[in-house]
C-alpha cells in the first residue's frame, strides 16, 4: 500500500524540468523589462526642414540647361591669381588656428574610437600579491588554525598562520550587453560629431582662405589708389606751374597759387595715410600667414574669380547642403538624435556579464599547480528605481538639445539660401556699376584737359581746374573701391558656395 501511494505521488506531483527552471529565471526579467518599457518616454519625432525653393530668387542668365547637379568650386581653380594661390598654400601650412583645428579633429576621432570599443568586452590582465596576519580571535584566524589540524588536507594545503599570502595571476573580463541600443547610439553620436568636426574644419578653412583673399585684394586696391594719387599729384603740379607762371606776368592772382598749393598738400596727406593703410594691411596678412614680418608679393591688377559656376543650372538643395556650415549643423542634428535615443535607453535594465580565470593560491610553492587554477562567471541585471529623477533630467536635456539642433539646422539653411540669392544678384549688379564708373572717368579725363585749355584761353578760372581734377581723382578712387567690392563679392560667393576643396 505504501509503495502504491509513493508511486501515485511520484506520478502525479509535477516535476520542474530544465526548461521550467529557465522560464522561472527569464519571466522576472521579461516582466521587469516590460514594466520599465511602459514607463520610458518616447523620443520626440524628428522635425522636417522647410522645403527649399527650386530656384534662387534672382534674375540671372544661364547658358546651359543640362547641368542639374551643382559642381563644388575648388580653391585652386576659383582664384585666378598665381601670387594669391602661393599665399593660400602657405596659410594652410602655417596658420595657428587651422593647425589647432586639425588637432581637434584628431581628438574627435579619438572619441569615435572609444565609442566603438565600448560595444566590445573589456579584458584586463592582473597580478595581485598580499600577505595578511590574522588575529587569533577572528573568524579567519580561528578558521585557518583549525584547518591545519584537519586530517582531510594534504601537506601542501596547510596554511601559514603567521603570515598568510594571497596570490593571484589571471585575466578578468566584463561586458555590458547593448540590448536597448544605449552604447550603439553613443557610437552613432560620436561618429556624427566626428563628421561635424570635419565640416567645422572645412568651414574654418573656407573662412580663413576668404579672409586672406580679402586682405590680399585690399592690398592691390591700396596699391592702385597710391598710383592714382601719384598720377594726380603730377597733374596738380603741372597746373600749379601754369598758375605760378601766369602770376609772374600778372595773369593770375596769389590766391590761385595758394589754392593749388593747398590742394597739393591735401593729396600728399591722403597719400601718406594710404601708405599707413598698406603697412597695416600687410601686417594683418602676415599674421594670418604665421610670419613675423616681411613683404607680400602681389599682382598689380584684380584677376577675376572663377564665375563659370553662375552659368550652371544650379540645384538649390545640392548647393545649400554642400556648404560646410549647413553640413555641420546637419551632422550635429543627427548626433543629438542619437544622444536622445541613448538617454532613453537608460530607463531600461542593464545586463552585465563577466568573469575571471587564473591562478590563485596562498603559497608560492603551489601557485602554478593545476589545483590553483580558479575561475568564476558573473552575471547581473540592474534597473533604475530611485535615481529616475536624474535619468529623466538627462533624457529631457538630450531631447531638448535635439530640438535646438533642428532649429540651428533650419536657420543655417535659411541663411544660406538668402545669402546666395543676395550674392547672385549683387555679382550681376556690380558688372553694370563698374561699366558706368569707367565711363564717368573717361568723361572727367576729358573735362580736366578741357578746363586746362579753357583756362589758358581765358574762358575758365582756376577754380574750375581744381574742381575738375578733384572730381577725376575721386572718381578714380571710387572706381578702385568698386573693383574691390566686386572682388569681395566674388570671395563671398566662394564662401557661400561652400568653399574650396584642396
Quick recap of the structure?
With 502 residues, the protein is an alpha+beta fold. It is 63% helix and 9% strand. A four-stranded antiparallel sheet has the order 1-2-3-4, with no helix packed on it.
Structure overview:
With 502 residues, the protein is of the alpha+beta class. The protein is 63% helix and 9% strand. The chain contains 12 helices and 4 strands. It has a 4-stranded antiparallel sheet with strand order 1-2-3-4, with no helix packed on it. The longest helix is centred in the C-terminal third of the chain and has 70 residues, at 388-457. It is elongated, with a radius of gyration of 41 Å.
On the 0 to 100 scale, the average pLDDT is 79
| Oligomer classification | single chain
Low-confidence stretches: 1-25, 60-70
Net shape: elongated
Reported for the largest beta sheet, the result is:
4 strands, antiparallel
Gap from first CA to last CA? 98 Å
Structural class: alpha+beta
Main β-sheet, spatial strand arrangement: 1-2-3-4
Radius of gyration: 41 Å
Secondary structure: number of strands: 4
Number of continuous helical runs: 12
Helix content: 55-70%
Proportion of β residues?
5-15%
Order of helices and strands: HHHHHEHEHHHHEEHH
Task: Set out the fold topology.
Elements: H1 2-12, H2 18-39, H3 75-78, H4 82-94, H5 96-117, E1 122-132, H6 139-147, E2 164-177, H7 182-248, H8 254-289, H9 316-322, H10 324-345, E3 350-361, E4 373-382, H11 388-457, H12 462-496
Antiparallel strand pairs: 1-2, 2-3, 3-4
Amino acid at each position: 500500500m505504501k509503495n502504491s501511494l509513493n508511486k501515485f505521488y511520484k506520478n502525479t506531483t509535477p516535476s520542474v524540468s530544465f526548461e521550467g527552471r529557465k522560464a522561472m529565471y527569464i519571466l522576472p526579467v521579461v516582466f521587469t523589462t516590460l514594466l520599465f518599457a511602459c514607463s520610458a518616454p518616447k523620443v520626440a519625432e524628428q522635425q522636417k526642414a522647410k522645403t527649399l525653393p527650386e530656384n534662387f530668387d534672382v534674375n540671372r542668365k544661364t547658358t546651359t540647361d543640362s547641368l542639374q547637379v551643382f559642381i563644388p568650386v575648388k580653391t585652386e581653380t576659383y582664384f585666378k591669381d598665381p601670387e594669391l594661390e602661393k599665399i593660400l598654400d602657405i596659410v594652410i601650412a602655417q596658420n595657428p588656428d587651422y593647425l589647432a583645428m586639425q588637432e581637434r579633429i584628431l581628438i574627435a576621432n579619438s572619441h569615435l574610437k572609444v565609442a566603438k570599443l565600448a560595444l566590445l568586452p573589456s579584458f584586463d590582465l592582473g597580478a595581485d600579491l598580499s600577505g595578511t596576519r590574522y588575529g587569533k580571535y577572528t573568524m579567519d584566524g580561528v578558521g585557518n588554525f583549525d584547518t591545519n589540524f584537519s586530517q582531510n588536507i594534504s601537506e601542501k594545503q596547510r596554511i601559514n598562520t603567521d603570515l598568510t599570502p594571497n596570490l593571484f595571476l589571471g585575466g578578468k573580463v566584463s561586458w555590458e550587453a547593448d540590448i536597448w541600443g544605449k552604447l550603439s547610439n553613443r557610437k552613432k553620436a560620436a561618429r556624427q560629431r566626428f563628421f561635424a568636426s570635419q565640416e567645422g574644419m572645412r568651414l574654418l578653412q573656407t573662412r580663413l582662405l576668404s579672409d586672406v583673399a580679402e586682405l590680399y585684394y585690399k592690398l592691390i586696391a591700396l596699391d592702385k589708389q597710391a598710383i592714382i594719387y601719384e598720377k594726380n599729384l603730377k597733374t596738380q603740379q603741372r597746373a600749379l606751374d601754369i598758375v605760378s607762371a601766369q602770376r609772374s606776368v600778372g595773369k593770375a592772382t596769389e590766391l590761385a597759387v595758394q589754392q593749388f598749393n593747398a590742394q597739393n598738400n591735401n593729396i600728399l596727406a591722403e597719400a601718406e595715410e594710404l601708405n599707413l593703410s598698406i603697412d597695416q594691411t600687410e601686417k594683418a596678412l602676415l599674421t594670418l600667414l604665421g610670419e613675423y614680418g616681411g613683404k607680400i608679393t602681389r599682382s598689380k591688377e584684380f584677376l577675376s574669380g572663377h564665375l563659370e559656376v553662375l552659368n550652371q543650372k544650379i540645384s538649390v538643395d545640392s548647393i545649400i547642403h554642400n556648404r560646410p556650415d549647413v553640413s555641420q549643423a546637419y551632422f550635429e542634428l543627427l548626433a543629438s538624435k542619437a544622444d536622445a535615443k541613448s538617454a532613453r535607453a537608460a530607463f531600461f535594465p542593464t545586463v552585465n556579464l563577466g568573469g575571471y580565470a587564473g591562478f590563485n593560491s596562498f603559497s608560492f610553492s603551489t601557485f602554478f599547480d593545476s589545483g590553483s587554477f580558479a575561475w568564476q562567471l558573473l552575471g547581473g541585471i540592474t534597473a533604475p528605481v530611485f535615481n529616475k529623477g536624474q535619468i529623466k533630467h538627462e533624457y529631457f536635456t538630450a531631447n531638448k538639445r535635439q530640438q535646438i539642433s533642428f532649429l540651428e539646422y533650419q536657420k543655417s539653411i535659411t541663411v544660406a539660401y538668402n545669402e546666395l540669392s543676395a550674392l547672385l544678384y549683387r555679382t550681376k549688379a556690380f558688372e553694370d556699376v563698374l561699366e558706368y564708373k569707367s565711363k564717368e572717368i573717361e568723361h572727367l579725363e576729358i573735362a580736366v584737359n578741357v578746363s586746362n585749355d579753357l583756362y589758358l584761353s581765358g574762358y575758365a578760372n582756376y577754380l574750375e581746374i581744381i574742381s575738375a581734377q578733384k572730381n577725376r581723382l575721386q572718381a578714380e578712387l571710387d572706381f578702385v573701391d568698386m573693383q574691390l567690392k566686386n572682388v569681395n563679392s566674388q570671395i563671398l560667393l566662394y564662401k557661400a558656395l561652400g568653399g574650396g576643396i584642396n
